[in-house]
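Lay summary

Proteins are chains of building blocks that fold into shapes. Our project writes down both the chain and a compact code for its shape. Here are two examples, one after the other.
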Amino acid sequence: MTATARKIAVLFYNSLRYGMAYHDPGASQYEERYRTRVIGNLQRRAKAFGFTLHEIPREPDMAVS
């Protein structure tokens, strides 16, 4: 808890002293990182069991009227 508080304090101090522009990466970047991490974990677990994973191509979303 102390390390986290110190890290926040240092970031706050540096942003006040030197100025720092905030850049929001957006939800899509977080979703992509999560997807990449999950796929990597699945591939590692499949390899441990002697399997290989193959990606199935996505089909385009069909619009229903």
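And here is the second example, written the same way.
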Amino acid sequence: MELGRYLVRELGFEDGVDTLGRWMSHHLAELIDKAEHGKTEDERNQGQKEATETILRIWEHRASLPGKAYPLKSYENILLVLDRLRPDNDPFAYYHGDEKDRLASNLFIDMSRLIPILLLMKISQIDKPIQIDPVALDALDETEQNIMMTILKWMELFEPTSERTKITKKGNEKETGNDNYKFDRLALKIINDLNITLEKLRKELGEKRQANHKSQAQE
């Protein structure tokens, strides 16, 4: 019943939810009302059976629900990217035959860190729910709960604190505190690393090209 009330709220009052979502919300609300306020005990028992079956059927298809009734809905894109950009998917991991391969591997690893951070910044600005309803969280399966908690822990890690910026005694210089854990600072750090690696790779390719030209000229 608690999960049903959660679905009624999310499907019925979320801005932008389509007609089907509002109909589902209204239908669930009627079933729950019948289960709780039926005139006879038999009517209430029958209402509870119908409501429970309907709620569970809807929840089975939670990934397709309109609005944000499914807690992981906002994170579909980032989950796809994270899966494809895992550092252990490094295509150069088994081909470290020379410096070029090593630098290419470094590029992949840094990009596999940078892209998810940029996506998390987007979620932080737009899609991050203020609070996940515990009823919905409890109704997720174990894998979904682990994913949800991992994402929320990542988001909390980069949350700004209320006392992050302070004026020091030396003048107008600001004390950054935990700024190293902000998305933008971390992204910039990785971008700097990427620039260094790219410069090394450019130099490596340039030197190899010059060596090849020299070898061809001698032949």
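What can we say about the second shape? The two ends are 83 Å apart (CA to CA).
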